[in-house]
Write a structure and sequence with these properties.
- The protein is mainly β and about 150 residues long.
- It has 2 domains: about 1-45, no CATH class; about 45-140, no CATH class.
- It has helices spanning about 5-20, 30; strands at about 50-70, 75-95, 95-115, 120-140.
- It starts with a helix and ends in an 11-residue tail after the last strand.
- Belongs to the UPF0540 family.
């Protein structure tokens, strides 16, 4: 999208917001941002604030090793697998809602095989780590009416 199209769409969006916004005696933060609220909800707007967070972290590892010396001679095999998963969800409502969620996962694997009689060897390793973090906050700040005349 070039700059001209962006500016045109921005102007159209602002004009639509101005045309559709209703006048409210006490202007709330939400109204200043472009949404319109009925006059009856201005005093209890703090109850509508909320914050939500979701985090997921998953890990998987698989290791396999194999060594054979045939016909019908020595053979070796080794296998390793692992999986970890963490999921967190936090939803908070209220005046000072805070959200914090953390998640971490780790999986390690190691496999080894060895054969004698003319030698055969195999080795496999695997390591996985995963992390996730979510933060959030919601608070309606009090208006400062100092020095203002009604």
């Amino acid at each position: 999208m070039n700059a001209t199209k962006f500016v045109v769409l921005l102007v159209i969006g602002i004009l639509c917001a101005i045309v559709t916004a209703r006048q409210v005696e006490e202007v709330s933060k939400e109204t200043k941002l472009g949404t319109s609220l009925p006059k009856s909800t201005n005093k209890g707007i703090g109850a509508q604030l909320s914050a939500a967070g979701l985090t997921y972290s998953g890990s998987s590892v698989s290791s396999s090793a194999s060594a054979f010396n045939n016909p019908k001679g020595p053979g070796a095999s080794a296998s390793e697998s692992g999986y970890t998963s963490t999921i967190g969800q936090v939803i908070a409502k209220g005046r000072k809602a805070r959200v914090s969620s953390a998640s971490a996962s780790a999986a390690t694997g190691e496999a080894a095989a060895a054969v004698t009689r003319k030698a055969a060897a195999a080795r496999a390793k695997g390591k996985v780590a995963s992390a996730s973090r979510v933060k959030g906050s919601s608070e309606k700040k009090k208006k400062d009416h100092k020095g203002k005349k009604d």
